[in-house]
Amino acid sequence: RSVTEDAINRPWRPLPSNRLTDRQARHLRYALPPVCLFFSIAGGRDVVLASTVLSIAFVLYDDFGLTGHWFGKNIMNCIGYLGFEYGATEIMANSTMLRPEARLSLLMSGLIILTTVHAQDFSDVEGDKAIGRITLPLYAPLFSRFLVCIGVPMWSIILSIMWDISPEKRVLFIYLGMSVAWRFYSYKTASREATSYVFYNIWLFAVHALPACN
């Protein structure tokens, strides 16, 4: 199903462009998690835990159909982001207990991903429709767009206050969030929405950089 979707939405990917066979992709897909777990040992127990959760999430997402419905898809995306972020934070912290700021940052990241990550699905509507995947933009077109257009500026304001960044940075960050919201409100063609998703990811990068800016 994913190959059918990618043939419409992302024909440049290895499988739809025939640079990789389905069998090769599956071998690679099941060979990499053990390698990841092996290297995670160097980071300690919590990093191994994060890698294990990620590996399980990948299986649930790809092989058990959770990608087929918006609720499971968003939950798995949230777990995926948090798994990467928690593991990376543990490695950088190099301690047995994360600081309260780090735990708060992870919590906020999870909430933001959970409520706005479907921004990635607006440009993929045709491909998702072709394989019967029910993403939030297909299930609730107006509500899903409302969540992004209201959620991104709202989170921008909340985070800029919470992390107590300077007025100049606050204005820039909120402006970035408003710009992302404006794009998703104004542009509704697949190519424009793909560009809007790029801007969303720039905003998401800024979200994760904010704790270092206070």
TrEMBL record:
It is a multi-pass membrane protein. PANTHER family: CHLOROPHYLL SYNTHASE, CHLOROPHYLL SYNTHASE, CHLOROPLASTIC. It is found in: Membrane. It comes from the Eukaryota. Keywords: Membrane, Transmembrane, Transmembrane helix. GO terms for molecular function: transferase activity, transferring alkyl or aryl (other than methyl) groups. The chain crosses the membrane at residues 142-163, 170-185. Pfam families: UbiA (PF01040). GO terms for cellular component: membrane. The keyword Transmembrane applies. CDD domains: PT_UbiA_3 (cd13965). The lineage of its organism: Eukaryota, Fungi, Dikarya, Basidiomycota, Agaricomycotina. InterPro entries: Prenyltransferase_related (IPR050475), UbiA_prenyltransferase (IPR000537). This is UbiA prenyltransferase.
